[in-house]
Write a structure and sequence with these properties.
By secondary structure, the chain is an alpha+beta fold. 21% of the residues lie in helices and 23% in strands. The chain has a 3-stranded antiparallel sheet with strand order 1-2-3, covered by helices on one side. The protein starts with a helix and ends in a 22-residue tail after the last helix.
C-alpha cells in the first residue's frame, strides 16, 4: 500500500514510522507546496487510509450468512 501511495503521488514526500513498540504508526506527508500533514493509526494501512480515504477506502466486510440469508440471493 505504501509503494502504491508513492506511485500515485510522486511529487509528495512520505515518512512512515513507529517509534514505540506496540503503539501508533505515523504517516507524514509533505506536499509539493511545502505543507506537512500527519496521520496516526494502529497500522500503516490505517494511517494511509486516514490520509487518503478516497484512494484507499475502508474495505466493506463480507456479510455473514445467517438463517435469514437465502442461497438464491
Amino acid at each position: 500500500m505504501f509503494d502504491e501511495l508513492r506511485k500515485r503521488y510522486p511529487k509528495f514526500g512520505f515518512s512512515l514510522y513507529a517509534l514505540e513498540p506496540g503503539r501508533a504508526v505515523t504517516l507524514e506527508v509533505l506536499t509539493d507546496d511545502g505543507e506537512l500533514f500527519s496521520f496516526k493509526g494502529d497500522t500503516q494501512e490505517t494511517a494511509i487510509r486516514r490520509a487518503f480515504p478516497k484512494d484507499f477506502p475502508e474495505p466493506t466486510p463480507e456479510p455473514t450468512p445467517d438463517v435469514t440469508t437465502s442461497v438464491f440471493d
